[in-house]
Structure formats: structure tokens, C-alpha cells
Amino acid sequence: MLCTSDSTRMAGRAPRWPPTRNAPRTPTTSSWAPSWEGEEKAQDAIFYSYTRYINGFAATLEEEDAMQISKHPSVISVFPNRGHKLHTTRSWEFLGMEKDGRVRPNSIWAKARYGEGVIIGNLDTGVWPEAGSFSDDGMGPVPARWRGVCHDQSSSDDAQVRCNRKLIGAQYFNKGYA
């Protein structure tokens, strides 16, 4: 993700195919920074780097800089980061899991034992751990295979995420949010 002073921009980058055995998973700043204004400026601009499920990074840039980087052969795309509004607040009914607040006996929800033992990854627009929907009453222990974390990047102890046996992991990523 590449950011401009007005808006946030994203650059997804991919290695050349076929990748060699010792090739980095994603091009380093040294591979494209010379086409911009140097590696030091590139490193100063980057605030997130993605190498696990997507190759890319988030950085604060001027519009001209984003355009220049987008021309580099290892850069696939550069696009703005923008907020999205929720499309539904009635997900359970929308997915056919409930009707009029009741679980249908033949629903996937019932067939899947209500998700017992399932670890769900969710990208959320905001979590309020104190809300009743995050109560861990009646929940079993956190699955032993869970390897996540529960923290944010805030400096305030009051802002720390309060995880429990239902909300077992949370991270706070807001550097690119304006």
C-alpha cells in the first residue's frame, strides 16, 4: 500500500516467474528505490510491509512519487486505500443461518455445531471487546493450535485489546488510516 499526502495508495508487487530458489519473496526497496529517490527515502516512507499472503507495502507518498513507483517493472499496481461502508448488519439472516432470530434446524450453522472448535480469521472495521456479543460465557478453552496475538499498537494501557476465550486474537493496524 502506498500513501499520498491526500490519500493512501497501495502497491502490490510480485516476484518474477519462475522464481529462483534464493530469490526474495518480494522485491526489496533497493530493487525499485533507485527509480524513485533512493532507498533511505523509501524506507522512511514505508510503515507496513506485507510478505506472507500478499507481496506489498504501505507507505506515505506524494502523488508524483506514487506515479513514479507505479512505472517500475516489479510493481503490479498502485491504488488508494479508502474506507468502506458495511453492506449489511443482518449477516446471519443474509447467509441463511437464522430466520426471525431463530436458528433453522437444517441450517449450516446447526450442521457445523455452531462453529465449535473453529478458529475464524476476520478483518473487522472495529471491535468493541466489552460488547455482549464478545462475552465468552459458555465458551471452552482457546484451541491449543492457536498461535495468534492479542494487542494493539497504542501506547496507552487503557487502549489495549481485552481478549478472552471468544475473542482470542486482535491486532490494531491504523497507520494508513486518515
Describe this structure in words.
With 178 residues, the chain is an alpha+beta fold. The chain folds into 3 domains: 2-81, Peptidase S8 propeptide/proteinase inhibitor I9 (Alpha-Beta Plaits); 85-113, no CATH class; 117-173, no CATH class. The chain is built from 5 helices and 7 strands; from the N terminus they run E-E-H-H-E-E-H-E-H-E-E-H. The protein has helices at 29-32, 39-45, 63-70, 91-94, 108-111; strands at 2-3, 8-13, 46-50, 56-60, 75-81, 98-99, 102-103. A hairpin with a 2-residue loop joins strand 6 and strand 7 (102-103). The longest helix has 8 residues, at 63-70. The two termini are 14 Å apart. The model is unreliable at 1-26 (pLDDT under 50). Residues 37-87 form the Inhibitor I9 domain. GO terms for molecular function: serine-type endopeptidase activity. InterPro entries: Peptidase_S8/S53_dom_sf, S8pro/Inhibitor_I9, S8pro/Inhibitor_I9_sf, SBT. Pfam families: Inhibitor_I9 (PF05922).
Summarize the structure.
The chain is built from 5 helices and 7 strands; from the N terminus they run ββααββαβαββα. The strands form 2 sheets. Strands 1, 2, 3, 4 and 5 form a 5-stranded mixed sheet that branches.
